[in-house]
Design goal:
The protein is α+β, with helices and mostly antiparallel strands and 190 residues long. It has 5 helices and 4 strands; from the N terminus they run E-E-H-H-E-E-H-H-H. Helix 4 runs antiparallel to helix 5.
Length: 190
């Protein structure tokens, strides 16, 4: 992926050419849609299905999940083709982003139980986890008590502690600055 900390365009891709297109029914009539009008509702559907699978509590920033799975079997890497300005290539590119979804793998890799950094146990590592860790570090949250249910998933910077450094790494993951595929160091409540 290109260097930087800002969101890239495109993030992901789906078949969206109007030929053959995707058929939809509206008020009893069939229409062909393509482009963002076809792809965005399909991605919304994938995320709705994943949200339901993970308990229906919301998924947080989708970019965190999308980019956290970069380079995994969650996507089909599109390596040929062009959008007129850029040419597709292996890995992230400005034609198809991370690639097209491999739905079965995307769901499996997105819902790995007990992800390191997921201290509240909601199935996603995001700013909510970072805030809980920061709150714990300053004494505002008891270790192991709701919503800080999984302190064993806290030590994402592998220094043996659960502190503001871990909160920062989790927050960086939420905005896409670092990968969310953490390895946890051993940490238990004191």
């Amino acid at each position: 992926m290109p260097a930087g900390s800002t969101r890239l365009v495109p993030d992901v891709a789906l078949e969206s050419d109007t030929s053959p297109g995707n058929y939809v029914v509206k008020n009893g009539s069939w229409f062909i849609v393509g482009g963002t009008s076809g792809a965005a509702p399909q991605w919304a559907g994938f995320f709705a299905q994943l949200n339901q699978k993970l308990g229906g509590n919301g998924l947080g920033n989708p970019g965190t999940r999308l980019y956290g799975l970069c380079g995994t079997a969650a996507y089909h890497d599109v390596t040929s083709g062009s959008n007129g300005d850029y040419t597709a290539s292996p890995g992230y590119d400005l034609v198809t982003g991370l690639g097209t979804i491999h739905a079965q793998n995307f769901f499996a890799l997105s819902s790995v139980p007990g992800a390191c950094g997921d201290v509240n146990g909601d199935g996603v590592v995001n700013i909510g986890d970072a805030l809980l860790v920061a709150k714990y570090d300053v004494g505002g949250q008891l270790c192991g008590q709701a919503p800080f249910l999984h302190p064993e998933r806290c030590d994402v910077n592998l220094d043996g502690r659960c502190d503001i450094g871990d909160a920062l790494r989790i927050a960086q993951c939420d905005v896409g600055a670092v990968s969310c595929q953490f390895a946890c160091g051993p940490f238990t409540c004191p």
